[in-house]
Write a structure and sequence with these properties.
Blueprint lengths: L1 E4 L5 H14 L10 E6 L4 E6 L7 H7 L6 H20 L16
């Protein structure tokens, strides 16, 4: 589960988050973490229930390799990331936290 403090957001910003979650909830793509559900707590937290990802993050993979990562491997990772982001964009959703720490491998 992911939890974000929304106490500083306006009602409109909260509605935008809810709308985006409605668009991607249950959306399946082999390179996306499945969003199962979402809810807002009484304490002002927006909680997203997501599929468990067992694998390491891109950040971990990049740090553990002292040697340069082969270009073929990098291109494969890049293509998978692009396919997932393309699907989100087709649904009108922009990924706001796309970092090496939010990209998982299986």
């Amino acid at each position: 589960m992911k939890e974000n403090d929304i106490s500083e957001l306006t009602q409109t910003e909260i509605q935008v988050q809810e709308s985006e979650m409605q668009l991607v909830r249950g959306l399946y793509h082999p390179n996306l973490q499945l969003i199962r559900d979402f809810y807002i707590t009484f304490q002002g937290h927006f909680c997203t229930v997501v599929e468990y990802c067992e694998g390491p993050t891109l950040d971990v993979e990049l740090r553990k390799n002292a040697d340069p990562i082969p270009e073929e491997q990098l291109m494969q990772w890049f293509a998978q990331i692009c396919c997932a982001v393309k699907l989100l964009h087709e649904r009108g959703v922009a990924h706001k936290r796309l970092t090496s720490q939010t990209i998982f491998f299986d």
